[in-house]
Amino acid sequence: MVLLRYMPTTRKRPFTEPWSPTPKDLTQLRALGISPAQVRSQIALLRQARHHRHLDRPCTLGDGIHRIPRAEARSLIPLQEEAARAASESV
């Protein structure tokens, strides 16, 4: 799954309006390796998201956040890449 990256724009349209990319949008998307279909798919997900969480407090190290030692983190990269591939294939 490709996540939308921050793309500054002068347009101020909410996700409730149809997305019609400008030539500048298409150039930017092409440069980022994101297809218009992927953007439309992510916008559809954002439109469906009706529930959000109210946070009690931010997570901090030791309170919801765990530090992974560098050596262990390197060994987890292949697992993350595999999960990312599986997620992108399911979209």
Strand content: under 5%
Strand element count: 2
The number of distinct structural domains comes to 1
The whole-angstrom Rg is 18 Å
Distance between the termini: 7 Å
Largest sheet: 2 strands, parallel
What pattern of helices and strands is seen along the backbone?
HHEEH
Tally of alpha and pi helices: 3
Strand order in the largest sheet: 1-2
Helix content: 40-55%
Helix/strand/pairing category: mainly alpha
Which spans of ≥5 residues are poorly predicted at pLDDT below 50?
1-8
Shape descriptor reads extended
Mean pLDDT: 79
Secondary structure layout plus pairing:
Blueprint: H1 23-32, H2 36-48, E1 60-61, E2 64-65, H3 70-89
Parallel strand pairs: 1-2
Q: Gist?
A:
It contains 3 helices and 2 strands, in the order H-H-E-E-H. With 91 residues, it is mostly helical. Strands 1-2 form a two-stranded parallel ribbon.
Structural description of this entry:
- This protein is mostly helical and 91 residues long.
- The protein contains three helices and two strands; from the N terminus they run ααββα.
- A two-stranded parallel sheet has the order 1-2.
